[in-house]
Design goal:
This is Terminase. Keywords: Coiled coil. It contains 8 helices and 2 strands; from the N terminus they run H-H-H-H-H-E-E-H-H-H. By secondary structure, it is mostly helical. It has 2 domains: 41 residues; 94 residues. Strands 1-2 form a two-stranded antiparallel sheet. The chain is elongated.
Length: 176
C-alpha cells in the first residue's frame, strides 16, 4: 500500500535523541573539567547540568570515570596549591576605603583547610601516578604545608614588627 504524500511519517526516536552513552559522555567531560577547575563536586555537577548523585553513582560503577575523577581532583589541588603559593608571595589587594589606602592581605586559612582536608586523596593519586608510596607523598605534602605555614607566620611577624617600629624608636631630641 502506497503512502500518501501529505501523510505524517512515523517518528523514530532513536534518530533524534542522543543515546544514553552519548549523553553520559557529554556530561562526564564537562563535569571532570569543572572538577579540575574548582575542586568542588557540587559546582562541577551544576556546570554539567546533572545532579550530584548522578556523578557519585557513575563513579561507583565506572572504574575509568573514577580514575579520571581522581586525576581531575589531583589537578584541582595542584592548581589550588599554585594559587595559594601566589597569594602567599603577593598577598591579596584589599580595597581602598575612605580612611585607608589599598593594602595587601595574607589571610589563607581557608586554603590551608582545603589542602588539609584533601591531603589524603591527593597523596594517593600522586602516589599512583608517580609510582611512589603514599607515605612519601604525605611527607612531601607535610613539608610543603609546614614551609607555607612558616612563610605566613614570618610575613605576619614582619608586618607586626613594622607596625610596632615607630612606637619603639626613640623620639628625636630637640637640639635646643
Amino acid at each position: 500500500m502506497a503512502q500518501r504524500p501529505n501523510a505524517p511519517r512515523p517518528h523514530r526516536a532513536a534518530t533524534h535523541e542522543h543515546t544514553h552513552a552519548e549523553t553520559a559522555t557529554h556530561w562526564m567531560g564537562e563535569f571532570l573539567e569543572a572538577l579540575a577547575d574548582t575542586s568542588n563536586v557540587s559546582a562541577a555537577a551544576r556546570k554539567a547540568s546533572i545532579d550530584v548523585s548522578t556523578a557519585y553513582q557513575r563513579r561507583r560503577h565506572d572504574h575509568e570515570f573514577n580514575r579520571r575523577w581522581q586525576i581531575a581532583l589531583c589537578e584541582g589541588y595542584d592548581n589550588l596549591e599554585m594559587e595559594l603559593l601566589y597569594r602567599l608571595r603577593t598577598g591579596e589587594l584589599k580595597p581602598v576605603t575612605s580612611t585607608k589606602r589599598a593594602s595587601r592581605t595574607f589571610d589563607n586559612a581557608t586554603a590551608f583547610r582545603l589542602l588539609a582536608a584533601h591531603r589524603e586523596s591527593a597523596a594517593r593519586e600522586r602516589a599512583r601516578r608517580d609510582h611512589v608510596s603514599a607515605e612519601e607523598i604525605r611527607a612531601a605534602i607535610d613539608r610543603k604545608v609546614d614551609e607555607l605555614r612558616k612563610r605566613v607566620m614570618d610575613a605576619k611577624a614582619q608586618r607586626e614588627a613594622a607596625a610596632l617600629a615607630p612606637a619603639i624608636l626613640p623620639k628625636p631630641r630637640d637640639p635646643a
